[in-house]
Amino acid sequence: MNRMETADLKKTVALLLHKQKGLLAMDESTSTCNKRFEALGIPQTEEYRRKYRELIVTTPGLEESISGAILFDETINQSITDGTLMIDVLKQKGIVPGIKVDEGAVPLDRFPGEKITEGLDGLGKRLADYYAKGARFAKWRAVINIGEGIPTITAIKTNAYNLARYAVLCQQAGLVPIVEPEVLMDGNHSLQQCSEVTHQVLHAVFNALFDQHVEFEGMILKPNMVLPGLESPVQDSIDVVADATVNCFLRCVPAAVPGIAFLSGGQSGQLASERLNAMHIRFKDKMPWELTFSFSRAIQQPALEAWKGDDNNVAIAQKLLYHRAWCNSMARQGLYKPEMEKEIPDQL
Ligand code: 5MM
After folding, report:
1. Tens digits of per-residue pLDDT, 252-271?
2. Which of 117, 263, 275, 295 most suits a substitution to test ligand 1, by most atoms within 8 Å of the C-beta?
């Protein structure tokens, strides 16, 4: 890479890692979005998905807490009711537009229960198109399941290789890669098991990134927090989770990586904020990277439930979206307090 290209990537990274802000993942694929709509009785059509994304991008004040928004391919080509492209609405607010470029996870042949994320074929061309449309960063998610005899080293290494290939192609195209290896919360595993698997996965991912000559300074890691499985009988305290998570990263994530932005993975909005906040309080000044959020459900869920597909509910849904984004902005600074859950700001 020449110095100019590196400087552009670093400029985008600096915008995304603004000290009071985090990222909003609004890149649910059509099937995931439809699943969330179905649960609430919202029609599963392209027009309803467009209306919902319009609600999100036009939320007043969203830019106070959100530095970047990850879009799905469908959304990057859509407009709000007045005809402005959604991507332009974001740019006008100073929110950096990003794009999910993986094509989903499929079963990994001969490895029951494990998955591999696809989308490398033709990726260079797709990235150039997204750059031309205004995207400045991208996202690729790999999923790792914990279970009987899994994850295997093959699943970990194959996913790590694909993540690294994706990352290098992004940097070549001028897009900052968000590298997302997600160890899932599904199952009854302990926090200790999640910690061991997350260590193994992060080592494999950074080895692969290093092998492929990815510039660490021009990327962001989007990992899971280190958590017990959803069905685990032991649900550890906020402080235990904070310590296990940051200690894992201190051992696995090079200091040259400028930032870590968590996925929420199915945690409640409040828990995700409390845990992020505790990490900042307990590891203040000890972390070499920025630590922020890149949540989807933990920001969007209350708004989606309030909207229910009804235009009359847009204002209250936007208030709730603003509020969750704000709680996470506070958590990202170590300033969050559970009492804030009741403070729905009414300046909207
Ligand atoms: C893990 O999912 C990512 C973060 O969302 P949560 O904070 O809700 O865990 C999210 O960006 C995800 O990658 C997208 O929604 C796309 O997911 P699908 O399954 O539709 O590819």
Report:
1. 999 999 999 999 999 999 99
2. 263
